[in-house]
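Problem 12. The chain below contains 351 residues. Write out its predicted structure in token notation.
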Amino acid sequence: MRWYVPLLYPLSRIYDGITRYRNKMFDSGKKRSTEFLIPTVVVGNLNLGGSGKTPMVEFLVESLKNQYQLATLSRGYGRKTKGFLLASQGLGPSDLGDEPFQIFSKFGNEVTVAVGEERVMAIPQIIYHRPETELIVLDDAFQHRYVKADFYILLTTYQNPFFRDKVLPIGTLRESATGAKRADVIIVTKCPPNLSYDEKTTIQGKIKEFADVPILFAGIKYSNPEPLFQQTAKPPKKAILVSGIANERLFEQEAEKRFEVVEKITFADHHRYTLADVGRISELAKKHEGAMVLTTEKDAVKLKDGAFHEYLVEIPIFALPIKVDLAENDGQYLIARITNIVKDKAYIREI
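Solution.
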């Protein structure tokens, strides 16, 4: 234990008390939650960052976009803009936030991507601008209780499950672990591929102490690296790793399995790249001639910014795509739950 941790206990108790009181106000109806006619699904967590929300949202989009007119809604963390905004060509990560821009870059016009701090105000605006919408997926909205969603997906990582964590600032919990009771399904993410039945049973038992809901286990799978600027289809054997995500450990482990890693540059989550950063990357590429720059999907969309193009276009830069790895039965179960909710709600579009 670090020496200063005992000094944080009073702050943690105060924060815990405030969040418990806030939840009690919503539970009792003294604070109002708004339920919408249009079906809504929340993907969220109890811990700060790094639980795999974006890959899970992308899994839902990929699975549901051919069944429904789908929209995603997020706060747009880290963006420089304010208020409601629909993703469109010409807008970048600084306008939309990193994750919404990544989703828009992948799916484009197949889905509606929207951002807005006040979700209870943003949902009607989505319906106004895109009246054909049939289902809205809210990213990172588990604590946004002003919206009462129809289905709550709570994520927690295998590496740092919420039942072992502490409330801020001692740990990374945004609220007490008892908040898990609001979930309709809990997914343990970033699981190792060899997770045993006994370990799953132990984790399930710990989670059941807080929420008696279905519990699924999901790993992550990396696809083949994809070039940013189409210089070459085949990645070199040596790699310079560049990342600015909440937890870079799994990305680095995967890279080290596949390539000879010669350098690592690590930034904070949601890092805004500058010309100085790009210059540093360029210098390392010159130093390690023949090596590629390997980065995450989240960082890749920012490095493709037009302001950096002339500095990076000649460098072999690749992104390592990531997806949720759910067992087929679990994936089908999750999509079936959402599909049934949409059917039961019988939302009728007015166009």
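Discussion. The chain has two domains: 5-68+134-221+326-345, 226-320. Students who got a different answer should revisit the alignment rule from Section 12.3.
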